[in-house]
Amino acid sequence: MLTLFVLHSLNEKPRSGYDLLKLISERTGGGWTPSKGTLYPLLKQLDEEGLIKVSSIGKRSKIIYDITPDGKKLLFTIRKVNKESEEKFSKFRALFLEMFAEEETVLKDLTFKIQETVGKIPPEKEEEAVRVLEECISNLKNIE
């Protein structure tokens, strides 16, 4: 998971190890940050495997990493496999619901459908989707 996140983050823009640690902390709401002893050996390994490269060395020897074409190819492959897995899981879930529908709540089913639908939204519609979801969350909070 950490490898995938590093590749994903570096695909967005070049970053230092410190930048990656900070980003992970931000994206998990401070819930998880890998140790330096976990991240930096991983960065070295990904560099040795040719998936990332040192793009520059900044102030105070700050190493900036960038994803390589091989890293982008691996990231694309992982994403493609994940998308196919999601589609298979969705079909399996429909079969499961058919057999055990009485145990499934309408809210859980709708939540799953929202997640499934969000995964299919094209990047150019993402801003609109965020607005709709934020409005939905606000409305749900009013029910509490």
What does this 3D model show about the protein?
With 144 residues, this protein is mainly α. 68% of the residues lie in helices and 9% in strands. It has six helices and three strands, in the order αβααββααα. Strands 1-3-2 form a three-stranded antiparallel β-sheet. Strand 2 (52-57) and strand 3 (63-67) form a beta hairpin. Helix 1 (2-12) crosses helix 4 (69-100). The longest helix has 32 residues, at 69-100. The two termini are 34 Å apart. The relative contact order is 0.09. The model has no long low-confidence stretch (mean pLDDT 86).
Summarize the structure.
By secondary structure, the chain is mostly helical. It has six helices and three strands.
Write the layout of secondary structure elements.
Layout: H1 2-12, E1 15-16, H2 17-27, H3 36-48, E2 52-57, E3 63-67, H4 69-100, H5 106-118, H6 126-143
Antiparallel strand pairs: 1-3, 2-3
Which structural traits does this protein have?
9% strand; mainly alpha; 144 residues; 3 strands; globular
N- and C-termini, Cα separation? 34 Å
Strand order of the largest sheet: 1-3-2
| Major β-sheet annotation | 3 strands, antiparallel
Oligomerization? single chain
What ranges have pLDDT less than 50 throughout 5 or more consecutive residues? none
Shape: globular
Q: Report the total helices.
A: 6
Beta-strand portion reads 5-15%
Structural class: mainly alpha
Helix content: 55-70%
Write down how many β-strands occur, each being a DSSP E stretch of 2 or more residues. Answer: 3
Global Rg = 20 Å
Secondary-structure element series: HEHHEEHHH
Instruction: Let me know the average pLDDT.
Output: 86
